[in-house]
Amino acid sequence: MITASPRRVRRTGQAGAAYGLLWVFLLLNLAIVELMLAHPATPAHNTLTTIGRVLGLHLAFVMALQLLLIARLPFLDRRIGPDKLTQWHRWTGFALFWLVLLHPTFVLLGYSQPGRIPILSEIPVLARQMPVLLGMIAAGLIGVVAVTSVRAARKRVPYEVWHAIHLLVYVVVGLGVIHQVYEGSAFKTNNFTQAYWWGLWAFAIGALLTGRLLLPLARNLRHRLRVAAVVAESGDVVSVHVTGRNLHKLHARAGQFFLWRFPGHNRWWQANPWSLSAAPDGRSLRLTAKAIGRTSAGLRELPVGTRVFAEGPYGAFTAVARTRQDTLLIAGGIGITPIRALFEDETLSGDIVVLYRVRTPADAVLLGELRNLAGLRHARLHVLTGRTSADNRPFSPEGLRGLVPDITERDVFVCGPAPMTTEVLRSLKALRVPARQRHAELFRLAA
Prior knowledge:
Elements: H1 14-38, H2 47-69, H3 74-77, H4 82-112, H5 119-127, H6 130-149, H7 151-154, H8 159-166, H9 168-183, H10 191-223, E1 226-232, E2 237-243, E3 257-261, E4 272-275, E5 284-290, H11 294-298, E6 309-314, E7 326-332, H12 336-344, E8 352-357, H13 367-377, E9 380-384, H14 397-403, E10 410-415, H15 418-430, E11 438-441
Parallel strand pairs: 7-8, 7-10, 8-9, 10-11
Antiparallel strand pairs: 1-2, 2-5, 3-4, 3-6
Helix pairs in contact: 1-2, 2-4, 2-10, 4-5, 4-6, 6-9
């Protein structure tokens, strides 16, 4: 087959602009916070309480930043993507956890120092003050969320349970705001600092309410999604076809995902991130899921006509991210769903190669559709089977170069189990495929 010579695709620079905006916002606000600390409204009792105050103000700022990162605002989500935003979320989460530990510790040390009172004895004394007690409760809840977010715990907790626990964040926000109203002093220097501080929090809470509540509600009222069909793809994989009104106005793209809820069939807090497994056509949406948890296993029993509540579309794993004319699509297991949708996307022009990694041919979901698309698009489809071993490592640098000799001249989209995706990304780096040509969907979704 004659393939088109590698050509560059004009980059939009959207991701760079979004990153730049994030950094400007972060640095500018940090500078203002430091200026506020230089001129507090009231002096601290001693050096230890001064440190506690500094840590407390930074704690409140990091919490406001965290709200913006989990707000899922379309501007950031479609340019940076949930995976990268979740990395920021994890970094700020670590900072939040340590600030929650250190802020009250230094405050307690500061109050116990003059009378040489044991620090543990100071806790019940301060807890009698309602604003301080609310702060203590918020700190405890943050600890619960942090513990369940550790990778070792996260692997053992079902997604639905993890998601429900993370709803405690909203309780923490409420308690934190009340605590600041009564205990804040660094931002009460003058009217300007108070206006700035509460403006920052109003912006963060407003962004959260808009992205997580108002926008999804408006979209679902507008589109009125319903289950149109449920199709078993294999013994443990099912596709759900969803219809609604004016779906073209959702502006969904192949490669994106939604958070899906099925009110009446599942509890309201059971939301799962499933990718579109077919390119959206403006008339219907299709998700395909493997029976891993209780919610995904229950999809097979969904009655036709069931109401659907979908948040999204989310993600930057789309053809918009391309920088080259030719494309390599790599999938493992059920990670084929966004790859299959991308394969159908007509904006993905040029020569296309698809690598699909499964244990056995019987595990290759949607294989018939992939073969039909390969024929229509004059693309190459390789189904890679067998256990990974010294003699069967298709995603090693040598394996990838053997399958796709011109890999450095292509954009590479990869989605699959975390170990496979990590291996592919490591091999791409070893092969010196530029970072701007490497695109991965890991579903590292913030709460």
